[in-house]
Amino acid sequence: MSTETPSGEEQPTEPAEGLDEVGEGRSGENTAPGGITDPPPEEAPQDVASQAKIDVPDDEQAADHDAMVPESEILRDLLASFGETTWHVSHGQDVLTVPREQFADVGRAAKEAGFEVCVDVTAVDWVRNRPERFEVIANLLSMQHKARLRMVTTVGRIEPSVPSLTPIWPGAGYAEREVYDMFGIEFDGHPDLTRILMPDEWEGHPLRKDFSIGSVPVQFKDSNKVR
Fold it and tell me: Fewer Cβ atoms within 10 A, N terminus or C terminus of the chain?
């Protein structure tokens, strides 16, 4: 492109800033007459999941693999002694999933290993959400090792029963009676498995999820029925 000077000589002129000789920006944008550049095309939105994906270094993967083994030597010995027992961590607490018939045996070994206290025995009713309807949980405490341990076993819906922990921790007897009273789970070997909260003649077990809610009529002082 050139311009004519007053003397009649043609002089080449440089293209406007940001434009080349074909009317396009140096970066390849389409440019309208007058040097106005069209906005760049919108980029396709990226997948949020792909943005959140993080590559884990090999050394961190190895650390996760090592974490599948409990750090505690006591737990490693328990797992070695009872091959069908499995271990995992839940909310920062060690959990042993124990076969039902070995529930008391693992408990006895845990006490010998230093878990002096059975803090509580309770149960969960999964109704039809799992093949085995009930879970029985014992929460153990070791003061000498400053550690907690949760033992879990499963119980079927027909005549549910597990070995009792009362011969190992006598204080567990009251908690086992409450589980029997509320869930109907029997503890084999318990010295006095009777109701502890409900009357002896009560029918059913109130904490089972299929237990009827029912109702009890209540009369207040200002009720017309009292007069």
Answer: C
In a domain, 131, yes or no: yes
User: b/e per residue, 154-170, with b = 16+ CB within 10 A?
Assistant: bbebeebbbbbbbebbe
Rounded Cα distance between 107 and 42, Å, is 64
Residue 34 inside a domain? The answer is no
Residue by residue, pLDDT tens for the chain (227 residues) are 555 555 555 555 555 554 444 444 444 445 555 555 555 555 544 443 333 333 434 444 434 434 578 999 999 999 999 999 999 999 999 999 999 999 999 999 999 999 999 999 999 999 988 999 999 999 999 999 999 999 999 999 999 999 999 999 999 999 999 999 999 999 999 999 999 999 999 999 999 999 987 777 777 766 665 55
- Contact call for residues 193 and 182 (beta carbons, < 8 A): no
27 assigned to some structural domain: no
Residue among 151, 160, 157 at smallest CA distance from 179: 160
Concatenated DSSP letters for 81-119? H-TT-EEEEETTEEEEE--GGGHHHHHHHHHHTT--EEE
Distance CA 96, CA 131 (A): 19
The domain spanning residue 171 has which CATH number? 3.30.460.80
**Would residue 11 count as lying in a domain?**
no
DSSP letters for 141-155: EETTTTEEEEEEEEE
Q: How many domains does the chain have?
A: 1
Domain hosting residue 147, numbered range: 69-207
